[in-house]
Design brief:
Strand order of the largest sheet: 9-8-7-10-11
Number of helices: 8
Helix content: 25-40%
Oligomer: single chain
Largest sheet: 5 strands, mixed
Structural class: alpha+beta
């Protein structure tokens, strides 16, 4: 029989916060008052300005510990171009979980090598335990799954924190990767080699959406803002001359070589630069119209084509691109 490890509580009716870091929780045997602890910044929000909403009581079975997960609503100032002068592009991937660059050329690479190695280790353990099929093996599988999930969450939290800390008061561009897994070519079945099966597993467990969410909410809490930009050909377009071709990335490797101007750079950094350029274009539209688009306008083919024509004119230089007049002011 499955028993959910969580229970939803409504504020005031089912639970309430007391003085001296205590919480009153409704149970089947009546209300109980227990002390709570938490991250100092979170506790400060509970005790000060945040609007408190519903909560979930979650039981961590391995640690035999209860957690009360409280939702908070925090008021932040409306964003303006003047408060978000810096522009940053974030390219996400698997070899490098994130590559960032801003309009001044400040660049950072966040490697995914350690996470991939640990994920491969967990996959080997999972395969062996699945073959056993015993109850103890099943319990062990649950533990391993939780460890892998927590590992990726911890890494994504750390990366997003470093990105936000390195780029305060910035407009942060993130690729719109909707349906990316469906668009990724993969070989399945007997035709797939061991290497291909491993690549398929990495794609299926790629936690890019989680990293995007972490960057977006931490940006809002720290005076920055995350927006989505069109991912169309960000890895194939040359930021120097604008030429687009799959051949610019030989064998889909880590080296980008433009077939026209012979510009060469790390492929993931090229992607980050193209995202930065499109984010800067969005900011300039925001300055001129007063309206900020937080997601690419792909509501119709004409709008999509018009946007992509503008992207084709972008260059990684104010001298060669008529569209880019300001580099973060």
């Amino acid at each position: 029989k499955y028993v959910s490890p969580t229970l939803t509580y409504n504020f005031h009716r089912d639970y309430s916060l007391k003085k001296d870091a205590q919480v009153s929780i409704l149970t089947l045997q009546g209300r109980v008052i227990v002390p709570y602890t938490g991250k100092s910044s979170h506790v400060a929000l509970l005790q000060q300005e945040a609007h408190i909403g519903a909560a979930k009581l979650w039981y961590d079975k391995p640690r035999k510990q209860f957690y009360l997960l409280i939702s908070l609503e925090i008021e932040v100032a409306d964003p303006t171009p003047e408060t978000h002068k810096e522009v940053v592009g974030v390219d996400v991937g698997q070899r490098y979980l994130a590559v960032t660059t801003d309009t001044r050329g400040k660049t950072a690479f966040y490697s995914g090598k350690a996470v991939r190695a640990q994920a491969d280790h967990y996959a080997r353990l999972t395969k062996r335990l699945q073959k056993k099929g015993t109850r103890s093996a099943t319990r062990r599988l649950v533990v391993i799954s939780g460890r892998e999930r927590r590992l990726k969450q911890a890494v994504n939290h750390a990366i997003s924190h470093r990105i936000i800390t390195a780029h305060p008061h910035s407009l942060i561009g993130l690729e719109d990767l909707t349906h990316i897994r469906e668009r990724t070519k993969r070989t399945h079945g007997k035709k797939a080699s061991r290497k291909q099966r491993r690549a398929n597993r990495h794609v299926s467990k790629w936690a890019f959406a989680e990293l995007h969410r972490y960057v977006a909410y931490k940006a809002t809490l720290n005076g920055s803002m995350g927006i989505k930009v069109d991912a169309y050909h960000t890895s194939q377009a040359c930021p120097q001359c604008g030429y687009v071709s799959p051949g610019n990335r030989p064998n889909k490797g880590l080296v980008f070589v433009c077939q026209t101007c012979h510009f060469s750079l790390h492929a993931d950094l090229v992607g980050a630069r193209n995202i930065t350029l499109r984010t800067l274009l969005t900011r300039q539209d925001w300055m001129s119209t007063g309206h900020l688009s937080i997601a690419p306008d792909v509501s119709c083919d004409e709008a999509k084509a018009a946007n992509r024509q503008r992207y084709a004119e972008l260059r990684w230089s104010t001298d060669t691109s008529p569209r880019l007049e300001l580099w973060g002011d």
